[in-house]
Amino acid sequence: MARTEQRLTRKDLRAPDEFQTLTRQTLDFVEANRTAVMAALGAAIVLLLAIVAFRMISQSREASASAAYSEARALLADKKYDEAAGRFETVATQYSGTSYGPLALLERGNALLLADKATDAATAYEAFLRTSPSTDYLRQLAHTRLGYAQEKLGKAAEAQTAFTTAATEKGPFTGEALFGAARNAEAAGDGAKAKDLYGQLLEKFPTTEYREVASAHLIALGGTPPAPKAPDVAAMVGN
């Protein structure tokens, strides 16, 4: 059987391969457009360095904010409320772009409330609610604490609004917020609203720590506390 052989001629050996051709063309392009290429390369390097620097600065600021926030928390734990409020304000101002900035506003309100500076506390809570991310339980806490601040100031209607708003938000403070709303509705002279809110509290949270007080107020307003729910026997047997 005949076999076909492929032989390289001298012409083939002299011809440049594809890789060499492309390399030469690339080098020619770079040489002809040296200024533009160097500018583009420089811009890419600057951008890369900027990204690295931004990440390093962000991490450094987050670490500094964490340290400052911890110092403020330590002052709060030591019941140095005025000093803690001042330190939290510093964190909120200097590190507003970090995760600790908004939280420091909320904590500043707590420190001021504990220092019996209800007006300043209310301002801090309102600032937090205007600027904070939509973290449900933190917003519920802020509205609840705002309710306490307004209550301390003798503003029952405003307190009721804050507590009622808190009760509509998701979080672990719903029972506390309902009790605050009912208490301030009663203080504002709105017996019907107070009776409804006390009833809601006892219905939704039958084992609440406020049950005894809420039941007494509800009865005084002419209401009837809901009967305790019977235990689920089937569930108990199943367990």
Notes on the protein architecture:
It is a single chain. The chain is mostly helical. It is 76% helix and 0% strand. It contains twelve helices and no strands. Helix 7 (136-152) packs antiparallel against helix 8 and helix 7 (136-152) runs parallel beside helix 9 (174-187). The longest helix is centred in the N-terminal third of the chain and has 44 residues, at 34-77. The protein is elongated, with a radius of gyration of 34 Å.
Name a few traits of the molecule.
mainly alpha, 12 helices, 239 residues, single chain, 76% helix
Note the topology.
Blueprint (H helix, E strand, L loop, with lengths): L9 H5 L3 H15 L1 H44 L3 H14 L5 H15 L3 H14 L4 H17 L3 H13 L5 H14 L3 H14 L6 H10 L12 H6 L1
Helix pairs in contact: 3-4, 3-5, 4-5, 5-6, 5-7, 6-7, 7-8, 7-9, 8-9, 9-10, 10-11
Shape: elongated
Average pLDDT number: 82
Give the biggest sheet: none
N-to-C CA distance? 87 Å
SSE topology string = HHHHHHHHHHHH
The stretches of 5 or more residues where confidence is low (pLDDT under 50) are 43-58, 231-239
Q: Per DSSP, what share of the residues sits in E-state strands of 2 or more residues? A: under 5%
Please give the radius of gyration in angstroms: 34 Å
